[in-house]
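@channel sequence for tomorrow's demo:
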Amino acid sequence: MIRLPHLFRRVGPVSRVVAVLIGTLVGVLGVPPAHAHKPSDSYLTLKVGEDRITGQWDIALRDLDFAIGLDSNGDGDITWGEVRAKHAEIAAYALARLNVRGDEAPCAIVPGEQLIDKHTDGAYTVLTLRVDCPKPPSTLALTYRLFADLDPQHRGLLNLESHGQTRTAILGPQEPTQSFELKTFSWLDQSLAYGREGVWHIWIGYDHILFLLSLLLPAVLVWQQAGWRPGQSFREGFIDVFKIVTSFTVAHSITLSLATLGVVSLPSRWVESAIAASVMLAALNNVFPVVQGRRWTVAFGFGLIHGFGFASVLADLGLPQGALALALVGFNLGVEAGQLCIVSVFLPLAFSLRRTWLYQKLVFVGGSVLIAVIATIWLAERVFNFKVLPF
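structure tokens (generated this afternoon):
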């Protein structure tokens, strides 16, 4: 039996208030709502051979359940029998939202058998495919609209193998149609693709953002006379932020590389629980300071944990060994760029408001308490395997 998290269960008034507050906080930064760590993804793999194109499409059962209804008896569990009964409907639903053209000529997509596989965020149906084009193509164009009408943040992660080279791309509503020259390979395009994935991952990861904000909130303040006081220099605040962001980046780069290369492997549930705990502790440290200075050491220590969380994205892509170095560099640069965008918005605004009651009480203290509460709920959800918050 395949047990799925109750992602769409009703939440109580307190949870709704928390969701609204955090949604407002994230909305100010221009970040769309998402799950605590793992967004809605599918994984499309296509292998271009001499005379045929084959592949598979991994689609989350939780997403399909929301779209077409897999849990026929409504008991919260999805069994193999329930999935098997929907095989034809799953194939029809998915293939109606994927179009392939070879050298501008339409290609027929023929579905094969369906299996079940486990990813880091749950169970997926694996739909095998055969793509029949009129002739062996030199250019392949894909139009991807899966769940576009239900979740504008959903994306498909493409793994395209052709002529001994592997490239990846992110498919979704932002760029539904993309074309690929099968006989050419651009390292720059691949680096940019992995970089975009890193930026996207940091922007839609509530836990990473709230951890970063917890460390940034005191950057415009100084600990004096047993209390937080407004900082006098923007330069000092900038240096503090620079140390924090750099330490976090170096740390998560180390564990991201070790995990992606298969040197170290930790259970996803442990990693996600530890990430939630890191957010909670960083936020509580603002209200009950244990570490006032050298907070970059905290960023480094917890950054090692967050790196294992980042690794789940690259692990689910199933990259070949030859693409790992490129993926690691591009993804890390993307994460860094995403963090710098957040810092560039936060730091000047926080510095200008640092002397006000609004910042010192509502934003700094109130924001830290709110982050700690949310992270505590995340920690309980991940340790005891239940769902309360809708993000």
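heads up for whoever presents: Confidence is low (pLDDT under 50) at residues 1-37.
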